[in-house]
Known about the structure:
By secondary structure, the protein is α/β, with parallel strands linked by helices. Helix content is about 20%, strand content about 35%. Helix 1 packs antiparallel against helix 2.
Amino acid sequence: MTIDHTTLFVPEDKFQACLTFYLEALEPLGYIIRHQFGEFVVGLGSPKEDLSDYKRSDFWVCGTKAQPEGAAHVAFSCKDHATVDGFHAAGLKAGGKDNGAPGLRPFYHSRYYAAFVLDPAGNNIEVVDHGY
């Protein structure tokens, strides 16, 4: 079983900054806007994930009037260190804050190579290459 999609709720007043952050930070992974419903609901995904005529969105960013109660942690997987490095650089350039530079995290397992960036709303976003 795999996760079909994840939704991240951010304050409406930070929605555009967060959306811009995700579009730029996740560009190395191939993410683009796949769906948009109104002003504050956007689904991101990769064209590589299309199943026939279905445009898959596996990461949703939704604005909310209520302040989310706590920061979220979302991890995206990839297949190489260069993509992890690219995410980290793009995330910082997009206005994110460093929360862990690219590198091995052997306390998770010997091939765990990851980077962490905080989005404009304080959510901890990770990209990881497990090395297999």
